[in-house]
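For consistency, the fold was encoded as tokens, as this record shows:
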Amino acid sequence: AAFRVVGPGRPVPAAVGSDVVLPCRLSPKSDARDLEIRWIRHRFSETVHHYRAGEDQYGEQLRDYEGRTELARDGLAGGDLDLHVARVRPSDDGQYVCTVKDGPDYQEATMELEVTAPFFDDARPFMAALGVFLGLSLALAGLSAYLYRRKGTQTRELGESFAPLPPPK
């Protein structure tokens, strides 16, 4: 083939609700505006985004991606085939394939999108602080119960030692 399709070579991270760019490019760099570019989900082999003859083709696009994908047009002349995915969902997690067809020539690159839940990523310090707080609260409650019982025991002991004196005769 006259070209290769190159992906990032490492998983692309994205938090739920954020926007992400799946990077892909031609090597050597060449004008991709007249090529057929199709982004598909590897496990489904279904179209996430399709670009052909200078236009986006939405007829085969998976419903889950409607209105959420865009091929970065400003980079096509330089061989960049980046796909923007808006409002990432947990179901977006997995393998993607960037395919390029130029007449009889066909090349592809596979990449992994790793979707994370933003709360749990940011929650680790909070969860640690909550654990320390709960541990200290339990220790304080135990100490308070011990001291309360001890006070009761001492009060009874003092009450017995200061028994009222018999009335004078």
Summary: The radius of gyration is 33 Å.
